[in-house]
Design goal:
This protein has 3 helices and 2 strands, in the order H-H-H-E-E. With 139 residues, it is of the alpha+beta class. A two-stranded antiparallel sheet has the order 1-2. Helix 1 runs antiparallel to helix 3 and helix 2 packs antiparallel against helix 3. The longest helix is centred in the middle third of the chain and has 28 residues.
Length: 139
């Protein structure tokens, strides 16, 4: 990917990428955690559902206790479906955390220095043979 000058290649992404990664990671993490907590409140009779309020470890703890609820002792394949969903939830939470970490810790290109602005200055000029005003500038 060429930079604005066209001659140099960018080694790292621009620093503006950080905000998107942190916001995207936060959205993924909040969605995964929120859905886990919501389902644990809706189906609170399922073994292990109380541990879903623990971020990151909750889905793994719920997976360890995954079983049929006392009301439906023969839940069949639902135990396996719930197990797959718990693993997906845990991986989504970890993925969101990884995106946040990447956004905070990634190496980015330094912002290019702004071109110097035109400036001028006026100063007195005094010597044994003359006195006056010196005007200098940079453009």
């Amino acid at each position: 990917m060429a930079s604005a000058g066209g001659d140099q290649m960018m080694r790292y992404p621009p620093s503006s990428v950080r905000v998107g990664l942190v916001l995207g990671g936060t959205a993924v993490l909040a969605t995964a955690y929120g859905l886990g907590v919501l389902t644990s409140q809706l189906w609170d009779d399922v073994p292990g559902s109380e541990s879903m309020v623990i971020p990151f470890a909750g889905p793994w703890l719920a997976l360890a206790n995954n079983d049929c609820s006392p009301d439906t002792p023969d839940c069949g394949a639902m135990v396996h479906v719930r197990g797959v969903l718990l693993v997906v939830d845990a991986l989504a939470q970890l993925g969101g955390l990884a995106l946040i970490g990447e956004g905070l810790l990634m190496t980015t290109e330094a912002d290019s220095a702004a071109p110097p602005e035109a400036a001028w200055s006026v100063a007195p000029s005094v010597s044994p043979s003359h006195a006056g005003v010196a005007v200098s500038g940079s453009f």
